[in-house]
Automatic annotation (TrEMBL):
Superkingdom classification of source: Bacteria
Chain segments annotated as coiled-coil in the UniProt record: none
Span of the signal peptide: none
Organism: Streptomyces tamarix
Xref: Pfam families: Metallophos (PF00149)
Name of the protein in question: Metallophosphoesterase
Entry-linked PANTHER family: COMPONENT OF ATP-DEPENDENT DSDNA EXONUCLEASE, NUCLEASE SBCCD SUBUNIT D
Residue stretches making up the Calcineurin-like phosphoesterase domain: 4-198
Length: 349
């Protein structure tokens, strides 16, 4: 029988303080947005009668998860009518060892949840085989275990070299694309990875799912969400579709010195930072004089002209002690900081 799936990854539940205000039920508004998105994932799964897959990093804070954060996430997952299969990410674990105690451990006692341990497999009610590899630094062990398995769907929490990061820089990882081609693409209909947050197709059959909810300005301008897809009776992948999350604001960086401008539309669903030199920002502030002030979803950041002046004129009769050098440099470059730097250098000497 055709089986539908919903997959999400790198949820990073947390009471992020930036741009948040306190919320009596959820602790803060950023976390209440996250909970609404988790509800959206579960609602879509219930509507589609889908099995839910999670590819690691359910919680953001390692070792000490906020009680409100844990309880609300646990409650939603425990009450889901759909089965959920999870692997553990590094953020869920105490150490980077694959068998580390984990914030996901309590979930394995829920009847609707399967938490895959280490590298392991599970079968859905409809007979599809899901193989998972939790995060771990034991790379050779993980590869040798992965080599033993095959199935319909692979989930792994891992870094793969050549993946794209923030600003499309190439990342270094523990695995290579040829590892993934050999250990995943050859043996599964689809590979679903967590760990790196930028959604991307890595190899023909394997992708990074991406983080579910925008977390910070490193997600600037990116649409976040989750996927649905089906595995047919013939064990073939069908109808892979991205579902944008609908409840959390995005992050957007407006660089005035790059000629970027802020549109009315931008301000509706984003947390925004406007960056520029102080003259540009004075302009931005003055434009806002008519209204009630700059909304608390917008932050103005002055780009400091960085000082890299490493030449210094000193009198011939100067002593060249670190203290007098520091004072002379401070006088020339950061006079307002002279006293502070003097104290700092005295402490260091
Ligand atoms: Mn991770």
């Amino acid at each position: 029988m055709l089986e539908k799936f919903v997959v999400f990854s790198d949820f990073h539940a947390n009471t992020f303080s930036e741009f948040s205000h306190s919320d009596p039920v959820y602790g803060n508004s950023r976390f209440s947005e996250q909970i609404a998105v988790l509800q959206q994932v579960i609602d879509v799964a219930e509507k589609e009668n889908a099995t839910i897959l999670f590819a690691g990093d359910l919680f953001h804070t390692r070792v000490r998860v906020d009680t409100l954060v844990f309880n609300h996430v646990y409650e939603l997952i425990a009450n889901s009518k759909q089965p959920i299969i999870m692997i553990k990410g590094n953020h869920d674990n105490i150490t980077n060892m694959i068998d580390s105690p984990s914030s996901l451990d309590p979930f394995k006692y829920l009847n609707n949840v399967t938490v895959i341990e280490g590298v392991g497999k599970t079968k859905t009610e409809k007979g599809n085989v899901i193989v998972g590899a939790c995060y771990g630094q034991e790379i050779d062990y993980i590869k040798s275990e992965m080599a033993k398995y095959s199935g319909d769907i692979f989930m792994g929490h891992m870094g793969v070299s050549g993946s794209l990061g923030v600003g499309s820089t190439e990342l270094e990882g523990d695995f290579s694309k040829s590892d993934i081609l050999e250990l995943v693409d050859k043996k599964y209909e689809i590979g679903l990875l967590g760990h790196y947050h930028r959604q991307q197709q890595l190899t023909p059959k394997t992708m990074y799912v991406g983080n579910t909810v925008p977390m910070s300005f490193s997600d600037s301008g990116l649409i976040k969400g989750f996927y649905t897809f089906s595995i047919t009776d013939e064990h073939k992948l069908k109808d892979l579709e991205f579902i944008p999350q609908e409840y959390a604001k995005g992050f957007l960086t407006i660089d005035l010195d790059k000629g970027m401008t802020l549109t009315e539309d931008d301000t509706i669903n984003n947390y925004i930072r406007i960056r520029g030199n102080s003259d540009d920002l004075d302009l931005a502030k003055s434009l806002d004089k008519s209204s009630t002030g700059i909304p608390d979803t917008i932050r103005l950041e002055t780009i400091k002209k960085s000082s890299s002046n490493n030449r210094l004129e000193m009198d011939d009769d100067s002593d060249f002690s670190p203290l007098s050098f520091t004072k002379a440099w401070a006088k020339a470059n950061m006079p307002e900081m002279e006293k502070y730097l003097e104290e700092e250098i005295k402490e260091a000497l």
